[in-house]
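so my prof wants the structure for this chain in the tokens format not the other one, which i didnt know existed until like an hour ago. anyway here's the sequence
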Amino acid sequence: MAEANQILYSFKELASLMVKDRNLHEGYWGVYVRFGINAANAGANDNDLKPTALVPIIEVGLQKFEELNNLSVDAAEVNPPTKTFSTKRR
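here's what i got, hopefully its the right format
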């Protein structure tokens, strides 16, 4: 079997991973991306320049959502709180 060159994640998978990383247990949380915008003259060579928009990804994170959608997950489902049992006797 060939070795994988890429491992892809859906938005829901990314949201689940980040919710678990931040130990969130309630609310709807989804993927948030902040873009920047820059401009440059670019082309195949100096005689073929064209005004070009450059759109870098500045940040990727979580954003609280009011309802579930294709970007969000329910933190209570993907990262339920662990139940702790007391060892103290009464």
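also thought this was worth mentioning. Residues 11-78 form one domain.
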